[in-house]
Records
---
Amino acid sequence: MRLVFVCQSCGCHYLVPPALRYPDGGRASAVWCSVCQLAAAHRGASEPTELAAVAVLLAVRALKAALAARATREQPRRADRRPTRPTVTSRGRTRPAGARARLA
Ligand SMILES: [Zn+2]
């Protein structure tokens, strides 16, 4: 699973490669998408370090929440599962609890 970030400049959601490294050797930003990162580089603006740290934390938290939500969604019922037989105690106990022991 990869982290999804929200660009702090244009607001789009973007995926970053693992370890924030592009195949060409460039470093991905946790703050800006590739387009806005390029624009910021042309402006000469550097990535705010605190914002990048917070963005990574938020992305990790969102990933964990998504995984937890998926785990609880897949678990409860399966379509191919047959209904279970009702438990013995729910079938109606008419005799007193000690009746079988006395007949034997
Ligand atoms: Zn952007």
---
Amino acid sequence: MKTIMVYKSNSGYVKKYADMISSELKCDIREGSKVSLDQLKNYDIIIFGGGLYAVGINGIKLLKNNIDSLVDKKIVVFASGASPFREEVYDEVINKNFTLEQQELIKFFYLRGGFDFKKLKLRHKVVMKGMKMHLSKKDELTEDEAGMLAAFDKPVDFTSKENAQELIDYVKSIRGF
Ligand SMILES: Cc1cc2nc3c(=O)[nH]c(=O)nc-3n(C[C@H](O)[C@H](O)[C@H](O)COP(=O)(O)O)c2cc1C
């Protein structure tokens, strides 16, 4: 089955997963802004990956706006955030980004990314500086908040082949190899 990996990545974590996945599945790979609906229609399996920004999946409109034209495709989506994987994170992301109807058509994975302040776009730097200030002022921090605060000084990268393996195995299983 013809497979394509499409991704949107701001600071490179999603791209790392996209490269891993496309190389493992030996499939085409395109950056999200460089692919058209007509091109997507040539594939049987569409994998889309995007970073999480305020729980929204970067670039997911490409699929959501065109979902009616893609109902005969197998669609696999992954989102990468800095948060560790948890059932609540998975549920929040899937429910915020997809209607129940869309969830029926999409197989969704959460693959933990990373955080590197220096690589952020200016507008994201501004937002995250505000977050840093807010966290610095708190008396008590949760483990996630403490980890996030530390990551401002020392970039973190949680990407791994192990994280991507379940998605890779899933696509192999629907292709039959
Ligand atoms: C403005 C902003 C908002 C973010 N919001 C979230 C979020 O809601 N949940 C999360 O887990 N990570 C969040 N992150 C972290 C990114 O999702 C993480 O760095 C991800 O790996 C980015 O992937 P990319 O660089 O490939 O786009 C946010 C980062 C920025 C800069």
